[in-house]
Prior knowledge:
The radius of gyration is 17 Å and the shape is globular. It has helices spanning about 5-15, 50-60, 85-90, 95-100, 165-170, and strands spanning about 1-5, 60-70, 70-80, 105-110, 115-120, 125-130, 135-140, 145-150, 155-165, 175-180. It contains five helices and ten strands. The two termini are about 30 Å apart. By secondary structure, it is an alpha+beta fold.
Amino acid sequence: MIRSRAALLTACLLLAIPVAPAAAQSPEGKAAATNSTQPGAQNPAQSSDCPRWRTAFAGMPMRMVSIQAGPRTLALRVKLADSGERQAGGFQCATPEEIKRHLILFDFGKEIFTQFHMQNVPAALDIAFIKDDGRIFSILKMDPSPTELYGPFGEFRYALEAHAGFFASQGIRQGEAKLVLPATR
Length: 185
């Protein structure tokens, strides 16, 4: 769910080309139904890339991480987007139920500047942007949209995506919380 600046320009040009909508079909040949009432939400089955993104999502390894928020430490089980393909896929073509059940941690290996999109994502998300030292410095809500881009003012190494409202419900606030990763061997 990330795009480089060159890919963004290409995507903007492609979005400007009118395309006639086709009837969405599931793999079984039945018409797919829209699972979301979110404004701007797209039916994930409409994207020809959905099999690719579903494979990337399914292949994300699970990891345990913690977030320190004041005196509390919250243990979280996350899917790890640890490759370009998994990072590009994110929650694209996931179901609203999968979004409610999972969190995705993006690790870019170093601090970068990029933006996230919500194309083919059927439900709103929260995203926390995290510095190399674990400080959560920005939390944004992202709504489903084929064109909107989301990102912080500054570079980050990690991004943690969750269903909308997750961070507030857990008392996690930007500038006050820290991501703690397990020690590597």
